[in-house]
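User: My instructor asked us to take a sequence, write out its structure as tokens, and then describe one feature of it. I'm not sure where to start. Here is the sequence I was given:
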Amino acid sequence: MADPCLMTLALDAETQTDRLRDVLAGCVGIERLLALRVSDGIGISDLDRHELSCLLRFMNEGLARQVEAIGDSIRAVLEALRPRLF
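Assistant: Let's start with the prediction itself. The structure tokens for your sequence are:
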């Protein structure tokens, strides 16, 4: 059976990866919103630049946090494995 500490670390890494996928889905949503054609009734000019800027900043901050969290999780798994490897 796997080491409980290692299992916890691996599950944490999986959770962080799922959260990163959520942030990516938000980024894809923004990309689709910006790709709407004027013929669809909504154009870029209909979007408030300040609101869009805030939304993009929020998404970028979330993306940066999740990438850092995944890096931390991977480093923790590696540290837990290190004594077993050497």
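For the description part of your assignment, you could build on this observation: The chain has two helices and no strands. Try explaining in your own words what that tells you about the chain.
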